[in-house]
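Hi C.,

You asked whether I'd gotten around to modeling the 414-residue construct. I have! Everything is below, sequence then structure, no commentary in between.
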Amino acid sequence: MTSFEEDGERRFDRNGHGWPRIPFDGPDSKPVAVPRASSFSQNVFDKFAVTRWKSRRAAVGFGVRPELALAVATAGADDPTVDGLIDEAAAAGGALKAATLGTSMHSLLERWANSEPVVPPPGMAADWDAIQAVLVDFDVRPVAVEQFVAWGENAAGSSDLFCTTNRTEGTTVLDLKTSASALNAQRLLEMSVQLAIYACHTHTWTGWPGDPVEGPLPGVNQEVALVLHAPMGSGTASMLAVDVKVGLELAELALEVRQARRDPKRAVVALSVAPGSRSKNTVWGGVEAECSALRGRIAALIGGTSCTALRVKEGWPAGLPSLLDPALWPRASLDVVERHIARLESQYGWVRVPPGLLSGLEAAIGRLDESVVEGIAERAVVMGIPNLHNVAFKRTHFDILCGQVWEAEEEALG
């Protein structure tokens, strides 16, 4: 058996989200912040009930500690310190009571696994006796205690136990759950994700700075994991088997969702038709609209720089018709002309609105209802505002659209 708590509490370096930063390529390499296994499944499961429960606890807490409500009113809704005040109110309202008791029971299990004396505090003896009876019945023998593992760079966390039992093959993941709600359908699926990440881990680490990241533990059971369920205060405990394959499928789905969330720009379908990714369904989309946008870029280039119409014509791609006749244009050829125009823009120093500002405006537009976006687009046409990616799009156009989007967001918030 190995334990990584013998010299005291591990000192994980964490980012602002509380994710551990792991030096996969060696102690001196740049660490990678990895999401926590315990919350990795939140990408695919509904958290509405949990959020509402925490809101109720916070409401109770503000009543118990009115000075917190006064602090929130003084700080203002947009002050980041308000988040901490809400958490403090939720704790005062009892949100952490069960979690605190659960942490105490986990400490008792850890002491037992490390062959240390276990003396349960008052009120917890019956719960510990029930847990110990299950451990004996399953002949649980610890292999690693609080072993920190990582599933690639996707998720990481510490399993309560890697152990052997008389009911499972090989080294099996075992996690203690003390919540009474652990047996509801969603919680079971969430637990399957967490335990599958532990069972299918690719790396292990002590968590101490300077220690290398190692490979996976040998012989880990990737078919079944165990949940030791002991609701606090019930004096009962039972062992549940979890299908690791089901959990892994859900973990991979959560990973796919997380990766999709990193590229929100691909969902923007209004006021933005980027070269190479055109869509017939976008506002101002289609071949005709794109020809019009490219003509606008040429006009702006000639009008705003020393570039001449003759210079544009000299470099025109051979075999392609005029932009004045969109009906003759194959869609793929628009990219060829766009690159020609882009080279001229670069050559003659035409400066557009910074891409970062455009990206922010695109993201804001993407959050609006389609009907609202269509209304903004119609007004933009009337005002002569071109497509966001048209070189003729000016800072004044940007400011006008930002104002309209802001008003739409304010109206949506009521």
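If it helps when you're writing up: The first helix runs from residue 48 to 64.

Thanks,
B.
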